[in-house]
Here is the input.
Amino acid sequence: MRDTRLSEPPEPTEHYLFNDGQTIVLERGFQWESAPDRNPIELERMTAHCAVRALAELCEGLVRPMTFGVTRNWVDEYGWSADGDPPRWNWFLRTPQSPSEACSPYVDPQVMETPTLDERSMLNAVDRVLDDSCEAPVGQRLAWAEMRMDHTWARLPEPDRHTESDELRIDDHDNKMRGVLVPVERANGRTWATVPETSVWYPVLLRVDKSVGTGYSDGLEHDEFIEMTIDVNWSFWWHPGEGRTMLDQAVDRLSRQGWRIANP
Here is the structure.
């Protein structure tokens, strides 16, 4: 006779995916008094390169991005977004390691391929985006708008006590599933994890875009701001412990580059 008894629910695991990502927002201000005669596209390049270097610094030893997206737009003489989009406004950089389903969240991407996704390849990508010629409408100019890392691996805390028998299991609150098997990979003495097939939330999502700045007393002294959003979707890197320490150390490295917590 078939056993019709209800099976016991699996025991909760120690770590889980958040229902809503936990977020850290940083900002960086720029003063253009030292570069009054600089071509506007070169000022765009300066902020874009700063954003790329900050992403690379944050990722060091913590996040392995598999894709990198850049968008551009028209802005008016004051730097405010204007109507319409320039041609080839959405660019998407991917590697052979990118998931087959990985794509831009926006339409009509210009897809670029690179063997590896690192600071150099990202700098080359933003230069290509800014140097790709197109005729601007009267009174407008070209600018970069946003950078995104939506497909990532993240480094698990060491020593890695979470991967017994070469398996890592976590709870997925959004999908109401316990003990979900998570893909892990060992590289250079470290253990990395990425999204399970049953979930949509990668461990860490990164975004940098233009900003009006927040309420610091010296905010009016800056001519332009960019803002980095760090969405942490798994508890490994948010709850107190070694994973959170790695995240805090990465944020501290950015603070030494001139970044600070937004909305003080």
Remarks:
- The chain is about 20% helix and 35% strand.
